[in-house]
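job 3f2a | input accepted
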Amino acid sequence: MTFVTQNAASTITRGVEFETTWRPVSGLSIRGSASYDQAYFEEFDAAQCYTGQTVAQGCVAAPVTGAKTQNLSGKPLYRAPKWLLTSGAAYDFAVTSGLRLAVNGDLRFTSGYYTGLNLNPLSYQSNFTTFNSGIRLSPDSDRWSIAVIGRNLSNRRYGTLGVDKPGGLGEVYTVAGEPRVVLLQGEARF
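job 3f2a | predicted structure (190 res):
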């Protein structure tokens, strides 16, 4: 097996983003964002083939060198989902005289994308949603706080970067995204 270091000749990215926050009452904020991104290789005519890729799937030998390459020009850029959508809310309120509680929750939707540069179909990560939340207790002076923070609470498994398994038969190693994490955080200001 041979690994080749390469650089795409050029890429194009076009998109739009929208972000908003609404505060209907004191202490409550509701937020959302949407990002649409169209990212693709403008020119990448000598990309490395993925393991097991056939001529019918676009893997051809170069006439002079015999190196096996594929043409990814016009194909989607890897690790570039078309859609990122988020929504969430945060509420900060007094629980007693002198103590405040802040709670928040957020959903994040990511559309599907390839995790591998060579666009191996096995490296395709289908769309997924993660949920994050937290709760924080502090005095009005904010001199200290204690918080519980949760990330990816639904424990959704997803890939971030994929590479063909050396010597494998079309298998892909994928770096996993962050699993469920629950943190206890304390702060003090002097």
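job 3f2a | Residues 10-188 form one domain.
job 3f2a | closed
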